[in-house]
Design brief:
By secondary structure, the chain is of the alpha+beta class. Helix content is about 20%, strand content about 20%.
Length: about 200
C-alpha cells in the first residue's frame, strides 16, 4: 500500500514489504476497528495498530546515511511528508498499517508469557513495526518508537521522552560506525506534548 500524500516518499512506500505478515497469524478474532487501548491479547503473532498523531511534531535529527539506505534523498528529509511518515502523523487517507508484537520475558529467572502488571501479556508497548525494507546493504525491519499506545501499553501513553530518544539515536550511530551489527535510527522528532504521571518525575 502507498501512503497517498507522501509524494516525496513514493518509492520508499512502494518498496516497503509487508508480505511476510501473510505467514503469521493475527490476533483472533480480528477486530473490525483497530484499537490501541490496553487490553488482554491472548493469541496471534501480531496486533494491528495505528500511530497516534502529535499536534505539532518537529524533526530534531536525521541520519542521512540511514535515509540513503532507505532510498530517501537528503532533500526529501526536509519535506512535510518525511515528518508525517516518521513521526507517525499519518494523514487519514493513508492506506499503510502498523503492528505491535507480543513476546515472552524472563521474570525473576523464570519464563513468563504474562505480564506481572496484569494478564494482558508482554508486548511492544511503545513500538510499532511498519514493514521490512530491503536496502542497499541490509534488510531492515522498520519501527516507529514512541508513536502512541498499543494494546500492550498498560497504563502508559506509548510515547518516548526526547532525551532517551536522542541517546538511542547517538548510540546507534556510534555502534554502526564501529561496525557493530545493531539497529539504526533514521530520525528523531519532538513535540511540545507532555504528560506527567508521577509528580516527582520531570520530563
Amino acid at each position: 500500500a502507498v501512503c497517498c500524500r507522501a509524494r516525496a516518499l513514493q518509492e520508499f512506500w512502494k518498496r516497503l514489504d509487508r508480505s511476510w505478515l501473510g505467514d503469521l497469524q493475527p490476533e483472533r478474532p480480528t477486530a473490525d476497528v483497530v484499537s490501541t487501548e490496553s487490553r488482554p491479547v491472548h493469541s496471534g503473532h501480531f496486533v494491528p495498530v495505528l500511530p497516534e498523531a502529535l499536534p505539532g511534531p518537529e524533526v530534531v535529527a536525521v541520519s542521512e546515511n540511514m535515509a540513503a539506505e532507505l532510498g530517501i534523498a537528503a532533500t526529501e528529509t526536509e519535506t512535510s511528508e518525511f515528518l508525517e511518515t516518521f513521526s507517525g502523523n499519518w494523514p487519514p487517507d493513508t492506506e499503510a498499517m502498523a503492528w505491535a508484537t507480543p513476546y515472552g520475558a524472563s521474570v525473576n529467572g523464570s519464563f513468563s508469557a504474562d505480564s506481572p502488571f496484569g494478564l494482558w501479556g508482554y508486548g511492544d508497548g511503545r513500538a510499532m513495526s511498519i514493514g521490512h525494507f530491503h536496502g542497499t546493504h541490509h534488510s531492515w525491519e522498520l519501527q516507529l518508537k514512541g508513536a502512541g499506545r498499543t494494546p500492550f501499553s498498560r497504563n502508559f501513553d506509548g510515547r518516548a521522552v526526547l532525551r532517551s530518544s536522542v541517546r538511542e539515536f547517538l548510540a546507534s550511530e556510534a555502534m554502526h560506525s564501529l561496525g557493530g551489527g545493531f539497529g539504526k535510527s533514521d530520525s528523531v522528532s519532538d513535540d511540545n506534548y507532555r504528560l506527567c504521571i508521577q509528580s516527582w518525575y520531570i520530563p
